[in-house]
Structure formats: C-alpha cells, structure tokens
Amino acid sequence: MSVSQSPRALYIHIPFCTNKCHYCDFTSYVLKGQPVDQYLDALEMEMQRTVQEWPPVQIDTVFVGGGTPTVLTPPQMERFLNSVQKYFPLAPHVEFTMEANPGTTDIDKLAAMKAGGVNRISFGVQSFDNGLLERIGRIHNVDDVYRSIENARAVGFTNLSIDLMFGLPGQTVELLADSVNRAMELGLPHYSIYSLKVEENTLFHKLYERNELPLPPEEEEFNMFILLMDMLKNNGYAHYEISNFAKPGYESRHNSTYWRNEPYYGLGAGAHGYVNRQRHVNLKGITPYIDAASQELPRLEMFEVSKDEAMEDLMMVGLRLLEGVPASRFSDQFEGAKLEDKFGDVIAKLLKDGLLESRKTDQDTIYRLTDKGVLLGNEVFGSFIGYNG
Description:
Helix content: 40-55%
Oligomer: single chain
Strand content: 15-25%
CATH architecture of the largest domain: Alpha-Beta Barrel
Radius of gyration: 21 Å
Shape: globular
Structural class: alpha/beta
C-alpha cells in the first residue's frame, strides 16, 4: 500500500482509567472528576475535521485503546461508537477492537459495545496471580478475568485476546508458567505477551532508581520468553509476531498495519497518526486537547518522515512479523526502490550471523527472522537505524 493513500486503519484513544498502573507511561488519567462528555464532544470534532482533511475510502480495522475505554458508561459508549460509524465508512468485514480492563465490562456495557460495531476485545490481564497484580498496580483480580470473559462470551463475542506480562517484580518462571497455563485453559484465539519495560515518569522508574524494584535477572527473563514461546506453540498457536500468538485467522489485522508501516488515522488525546508520510502526535492533556479540538486539529507536533527514515521504519517494524518483509512490499512503498540496493550490506551481515534468513519465491524474496533472530530482535532492528546504504 502506498503511504499517500487514505488510511484504511483507525486508532482512537480514550485516555481515562480507574487508576494509574505502576508501569504505565501511556497518555492516561484517573477517571474521577474528568470531563468525559466534553472529551467525547472534542473527539467527534476531531473526527469531523480529520475526514474533511483526509476523506476515508473504507476502514478495514478500528482499534480503540487507552487508558481503559471500557470505563465509559453504556450511554457514553453508545454515543462514542455512533460517532465512529457516522464519520468513518466501515468495511463489511471490519476488525473492530476495543481494549478492556477485567472488571469494567458488565453485560450492559458489552451489549452497547457489540451494538456499536465492536467485534474484538483485548483484555489487559497481565497475570493470573493476585499478588503480582497488586504489586504492579492493577485493581482487578483473577476472578474479574474469568467473569469478564464469561460476560463477553454470553453477549456473543468470540474474537477475544488477553495481554500477559513477564519480567515483573518478584515474578518467577514457575509463576509465569502457571499464568500461561490458566490463560490457555480459557481457549482464546489470541494472546499478546509483553516484557516489562521500566519507563520514565512511572512509579516503577522511581523505585528502580532507588534500587527498590526486584526485577528478575536477565537470564531468568530470557528463560521466561523461551517458556512462553514453547507453551503457546505447543498449544497450537502460531507465533506470528515477536509478542503475539494466534490461532489461524485470528491475527491482529489492525496491529499488522503498524508492522507493515502502512498509514493510519490517529485520534484522541496523545494519539499518533501516520498519513501521507507525515506523522503527528496530538496534545496530551485533557483540557488542552478539548480546547484545541474546538478550533482546529489538536496537534502537539507534526513532522515529515524522510524516505530514508521510512525505509528504516519498514524494516524495523516489518521484521517483527515472523512472516518477514517481502522485497516487493519495500518496492511498493518506495516507488520501485530495491530493498537490496538500500540495505544489501546490513542484510548480508545479518544473514551471515544467522539472525535473518531469506526465502525466494517465483516473484519475490522474503527476509525473516531466524529462531536466533527472534531472541535477539532488538539487535536486528537496531542494525537498520541510521544505515546509509
């Protein structure tokens, strides 16, 4: 897909949460006292201005993230989802994902979500150990997870995913194995597995600076990742992206837009978008966002992505997909440019080091991570930064 085309993917940010988790650096604010209805007004104004500037053709994927979008009340949820349908023409087989926190999805809310077009839910579970959940600042417990999945299925949702985290303070390989086993017992079609990253401006970062965050040793975290891969593969899940596993046909289509470096709309406070090889970041504060959206597109910054930078981006995000990067995708995005002409030397080194492999078809060459490359992904991706081939 050419980046000059209208995006076929839409990201919308709902920045409210019941509380702030200890590891979270996303644009999110505790719900109490927030002007939620005014925020939804502003969001609708941003939708209107966005489609005037970049008229959509057809939206294939929608992802509503946060924050915790499911803190919206059922009437607010209905209103919000109606506005999405009003401004964006959704494809008949759209993938419409909403993030949810266990414990915030009762039957009425789930019914409003389903009626509004949502057909995929991603639950932020993180762990099946109540002690760990409390330690990382989550306010749900394991019972909430089971109840939320049960409610979602009762309303008719079948495309469900949960996030799990590893490398958490005080987590062991045994605790992780127990969480994965309990997750597998749910029989969901998709699982996302992320390692903890200690980000600035979080409680965990302050504790880390004071040497008060008991993180697992690096070798143990490495063993956790290997365990995860083995357990999920042995249960019939394809490892289709470094952090994601799915049954056939249930891969996240929306996130694949990012991994293929394709354009997407980004709306809401703190949201990022990528249209016509321009990236933008929206204002992050609730009041500044609301005030700006009543006058104009609520941008914090906009910048042109150079051709060289876009080429680097395609390789760094594209190689996260285990299917790899076809040379034809590179040519399609960059007016016929040859992947090997730009990155031939770095690819040759990665092939020699056993981190990449190539597969030739009748019409294409595909470069993908080896098993060793999956374990050393950051080393592979970093090879393309600032490379002047």
